[in-house]
UniProtKB/TrEMBL annotation, chain A:
Organism of derivation: Nipponia nippon (Crested ibis)
GO CC annotations on file: nuclear pore
Gene Ontology process terms (BP): nucleocytoplasmic transport
UniProt cross-references to PANTHER family, sorted A to Z: ALADIN, ALADIN/ADRACALIN/AAAS
Cross-referenced InterPro entries: Aladin, Beta-prop_Aladin, WD40/YVTN_repeat-like_dom_sf, WD40_repeat_dom_sf, WD40_rpt
The protein, known as: Aladin
Limits of the Aladin seven-bladed propeller domain: 3-335
UniProtKB/TrEMBL annotation, chain B:
Compartment list: Nucleus membrane; Nucleus, Nuclear pore complex
GO molecular function: protein-macromolecule adaptor activity
Organism: Nipponia nippon (Crested ibis)
Topological category with respect to the lipid bilayer: Multi-pass membrane protein
Compositional bias annotation for Polar residues: 356-368
GO biological process: mRNA transport; nuclear pore organization; protein transport
UniProt protein name: Nucleoporin NDC1
Chief location bin: nucleus
Domain of life: Eukaryota
PANTHER family (alphabetical): NUCLEOPORIN NDC1 (PTHR13269:SF6)
Organism phylogeny: Eukaryota, Metazoa, Chordata, Craniata, Vertebrata
């Protein structure tokens, strides 16, 4: 609310992103070209989510009020207004409004979900065939997240239960939470760990899954219980500028594709004066053991609240966090570090984990 | 309720139930006999009519009609009441003192039986028209029970609606033709028509609600049981089958994946093998290791060679087919090249295509009808330079030159292209006409063609051949002006496009399996077996992509019919070409994303290198 940006999506392979604005138009910014195509369609209303198709140059799926629009853009075209003929309409009776989308990392299937439809749809976009995955109990789906290795899908429902589906035979495991619905979740890059948060609680839970080997058909392989890995309740920090109270519920969470940085939007209590919404950044590691260490905080200008965060999918020098603020500004925050997985050529010097340079450097500030 | 339970135990009911199971068995046998993994799409109305009156289809319809009648009889008997018997005693109105009960025809029973037969026949007709014998493979894998449960509500709803349509059609048919069976049965079985009751083939007779309701209910029951049998057959037949890559026991050697792919198994086995290949390449690291492994004594990568060779030959086949189709379209309906000329040698498709790619890039402007196909064909057939042939490039085969030369100059149709009469009908007018005469002239043109090829000095064809061609064109010209003939023979463009891509599911799986294996080999291939075949794979994929892109520029190919969601019958074969194009692009991107800049070290032709660079920069 109060933000002109509805949705944000980075292209998985290039430096290109799409921004959905309040007036239901979508702009595509490309670091290699100066033209900014603006996508409009008469069915494109109340855009809730967007996702670029992996392993493709420029196909963008948009979750709209009544359908899913799949834009087939020409990556080399210089037109600023692609025609509506480039958009493919995928609609299914009873499946609206569509609020979350997820492409399979192997690029073939698109999952779409709506909070009022108890069935998740698996689309084969090119033939426009869909398969309904139905289950009972829990209502629709509010949040979808596909693990980066393509093996599991998290589907959160409006009630106090969420499901984890495995993507080979499409069976699911049901996870009842205690207090409220699953607000957000993100997967580790190898799909073995799921971090999620629950509405009303200010902790981060972790759920581990056995390594996917392909012989376990039809089993999700989740562990018995989830464990708490981080407590984000309100604490007071002494800073140069005085006392700061930071902490509260988690609004959204993203994990960078190398698995080294976790960014969390923590919403302070609304009734307590002086509490604010900040982004907390954690340093993480998934193997051999899971480790989560606080790294720093990100704050915007006075009065700007962070609304959407996303990590750049292929930033070579560490991680790049993009923040969409409530004032309509988009800022990119780079974290320069040497990733623990990439072998370095200089064995003499042990790689120092550089401290996160938390600078604001609006590369693509807009609006 | 107790009454109905008692009824259940009467011998009548048990006999009926036995009879119903026999019916289901016969239907299932027919399902199993008639299935096809590749749909046969009739391209013209005449082909559709031919399909309907084909003897196989006639047997199918007759048997289904008989089965329908049996089911209706069982239902009629089980409901008791007024439908139960064919003949009921009735009193003749005139002779009151006679009081001998006669047997009258129970028209309701007859109505029931005939409605059952009609429904059986309609089901069989719809089976044919909707291509219900086509086995669509599902886009996601699911356990059989879940898939069955998911389709059940739609099946029930569809049966109810369809039964309503059948009952309506049958009422209309009975109204007009009902007296024929009535009279026939009453004369053969010596029954009298009861004059007291309304005859059913009048409007008042047919508006009997309970009769219509019972007929509809019987239809719903019949359709539900038959559709469930069909659905179960589909689910079981398209279930994934696990083919071992490396045979562990000696008797399994015939069943292992590389062997099955390389031999010529029945089409469903090939489909299942390719589906298994696609699944193992994505989900099973252990089986991928088996694919990349070397044979024990010699260290040869037999598994990988067999699999990649088969996939590449499938893709090259498709490339050839599309090129042929484009040729036909470009030549505007000339007779298609006989398939025998275009046999692609499966040994080294990559190498051959590389060679012709380079020749094409140098010579693409020379040939006026500059289709890559002629040059591709030329390099695949034994190269012969025909002296004095100046129609095409010196590397085109003499046969091709002969044909294009002749048809160019001598066809009277060549001049009539400009006539508005022909233009109105569209470019595909002559494909069917020439196919019509193909049966007759095929024998003539074949020996002449082969003679021309073998002779190799006969650039000028024989006089008789030209004269025959002349006559052919004149007859075609004459027939084209008869609207009725063209109505039957004109090829539906959408149907002919679908027919080209009807077995594209095989190619989609081959693409996915191959690209996933190549992508996985970046980290999992210990012996480098994939690297040696990378040039061939990239060449085939890029060539196919070019051809497919060009194919999509033809008229009608890129148009999509509006999709109706929630239909019981799967029509995914109509949009297979889009799935092929998308998965081809995804396969190429998968390879370029995984290999990245390392692809620049792979030996491919310059033009392909340029396209690969486009893929690397995500500009395609």
């Amino acid at each position: 609310a109060g933000c002109t940006i509805r949705a944000f999506a980075w292209h998985p392979h290039t430096s290109k992103f799409a921004v959905a604005l309040l007036d239901d138009s979508i702009r595509v910014y490309n670091s290699n070209s100066a033209t900014i195509p603006s996508l409009k369609h008469r069915l494109q209303r109340n855009v809730a989510a967007m996702a670029w198709k992996p392993l493709c140059a420029s196909i963008l799926a948009v979750a709209c009020q009544s359908c899913v629009l799949v834009w087939h853009l020409d990556p080399t075209s210089l037109s600023t207004r692609p025609s509506s003929g480039c958009a493919q309409v995928l609609s299914y009776p009873g499946h609206s409004p569509v609020t979350s989308l997820a492409w399979a990392p192997s690029g073939e299937l698109l999952l779409s979900a709506s909070p009022v439809d108890t069935a998740m749809l698996v689309w084969d976009v090119s033939t426009e065939n869909c398969v309904q995955l139905q289950w009972f109990g829990g209502g629709g789906v509010t949040y979808l997240a596909w693990s980066p290795d393509g093996s599991k899908v998290l589907a959160a429902t409006p009630s106090a239960v969420f499901r984890v589906w495995e993507a080979q035979m499409w069976t699911c495991e049901r996870w009842p939470t205690i207090k409220g619905r699953c607000q957000t979740g993100c997967w580790s890059p190898d799909g073995s760990r799921l971090l999620f948060t629950v509405l009303g609680e200010s902790v981060i839970y972790s759920l581990s899954f056995s390594e996917y080997r392909g012989e376990m058909q039809g089993q999700v392989g989740g562990s018995k219980t989830a464990s708490i890995v981080a407590d984000l309740s309100e604490t007071t920090f002494e800073t140069l500028y005085g006392e700061e109270r930071i902490g509260g519920e988690v609004h959204s969470m993203v994990w960078d594709p190398t698995g080294e940085r976790l960014a969390v939007i923590i919403r302070g209590q609304a009734d307590v004066p002086g509490s604010q919404t900040v982004i907390a950044v954690f340093r993480t590691r998934n193997s051999p053991v899971f480790e989560l260490l606080p790294c720093g905080f990100l704050r915007g200008e006075r009065g700007a609240q962070p609304q959407l965060i996303a990590f750049h999918p292929c930033f070579k020098k560490g991680a790049l966090l993009t923040v969409c603020w409530s004032t309509g500004k988009i800022s990119h925050v780079p974290f320069f570090f040497v990733s623990a997985h990439v072998p370095r050529a200089s064995p003499s010097r042990s790689p120092v984990m550089a401290s996160a340079s938390v600078r604001e450097q609006p590369l693509f500030s807009e609006l | 309720i107790l009454d109905s339970f008692n009824d259940l135990y009467t011998s009548y009911v048990i006999f009926c139930i036995l009879l119903m199971s026999v019916v289901i068995l016969v239907i299932s046998i027919f399902n199993a006999e008639f299935y096809a993994v590749v749909p046969s799409i009739p391209c013209s109305r005449l082909a559709l009519i031919g399909k309907i009156i084909h003897p196989q289809q006639v047997i199918h319809s007759v048997v289904h009609a008989v089965m329908g009648m049996l089911v209706a009889w069982c239902a009629a008997v089980m409901t008791k009441g007024k439908f139960q018997f064919l003949a009921v005693p009735c009193m003749p109105s005139e002779s009151l003192d006679d009081a001998v009960p006669q047997m009258c025809l129970n028209e309701y029973h007859l109505f029931f039986l005939l409605s059952g037969a009609f429904m059986g026949y309609s089901y069989s007709l719809l089976y044919l028209i909707n291509n219900m014998n086509y086995l669509p493979f599902p886009i996601i894998q699911q356990y059989k029970y879940l898939r069955f449960r998911r389709s059940l509500p739609l099946l029930v709803k569809h049966s109810c609606v369809e039964s309503l349509y059948f009952v309506r059609n049958f009422c209309v048919a009975y109204y007009f033709f009902g007296y024929i069976p009535k009279v026939w049965i009453s004369t053969t079985m010596d029954l009298h028509i009861d004059s007291k009751l309304h005859p059913l083939d009048t409007l008042t007779g047919l508006l009997d609600l309970s009769l219509v309701y019972h007929a509809w209910l019987c239809g719903v029951f019949l359709l539900i049981t038959w559709y469930i049998a069909w659905l179960l057959f589909k689910i079981y037949a398209t279930e994934t089958h696990h083919f071992p890559v490396q045979p562990t026991f000696a008797e399994e050697t015939d069943q292992c994946l590389p062997k099955i792919l390389n031999s010529n198994p029945p089409l469903i086995i090939k489909f299942l093998a390719l589906q298994d290949l696609m699944l193992l390449s994505q989900y099973s690291p252990v089986r991928r290791q088996e694919v990349f492994s070397l044979s024990q004594p010699g260290g040869h990568p037999h598994n990988w060679t067999a699999i990649s060779r088969e996939c590449l030959s499938l893709l090259s086949d498709l490339t050839q087919r599309l090129i042929t189709q484009q040729d036909a379209a470009a030549a505007n309906g000339r007779a298609k090249q006989p398939a025998g000329e275009l046999k692609v040698s499966p040994q080294t498709p990559g190498a051959v295509v590389t060679e012709d790619m380079s020749s094409q890039s140098q010579r693409s402007n020379i040939v006026p009808r500059a289709s890559m196909s002629s040059l591709v064909k030329s390099s695949l057939m034994p190269l012969k330079t025909s002296p004095g042939s100046d129609v095409g490039s010196p590397f085109s085969s003499p046969a091709l030159n002969c044909k294009t030369g002749i048809l160019d100059v001598n066809s009277p149709w060549h001049g009539s292209v400009q006539s508005p009469h022909v233009m109105r009908r569209g470019p595909k007018l002559w494909t069917s006409g020439s196919d019509l005469q193909m049966n007759g002239s095929h024998h003539e043109s074949f020996p002449v063609l082969s003679a021309a090829r073998v002779g190799s000095e006969a650039v000028q064809p024989s006089f008789i051949y030209t004269w025959l061609q002349n006559k052919q064109e004149q007859i075609k010209n004459f027939l084209s002006k008869r609207v009725l003939i063209m109505y039957f023979f004109s090829k539906h463009p959408e149907a002919s496009i679908q027919a080209v891509f009807s077995d594209a599911q095989m190619h989609i799986w081959a693409l996915e399996g191959l690209s996933h294996l190549v992508a996985a080999s970046f980290t999992e291939d210990q012996f480098g077996v994939v690297q040696t075949t990378l040039p061939a794979i990239l060449n085939t994929l890029l060539t196919l992509q070019e051809v497919v892109d060009r194919h999509f520029k033809l008229p009608h190919v890129s148009s999509k019919s509006p999709r109706i969601s929630g239909r019981l019958v799967d029509t995914s074969y109509k949009t297979l070409r889009f799935a092929l194009r998308a998965s081809l692009k995804t396969a190429l991107y998968r390879i370029t994303t995984v290999f990245g800049e390392h692809l620049n070290a792979v030996q491919v032709s310059a033009e392909h290198k340029k396209r690969l660079q486009q893929f690397l920069e995500y500009k395609e």
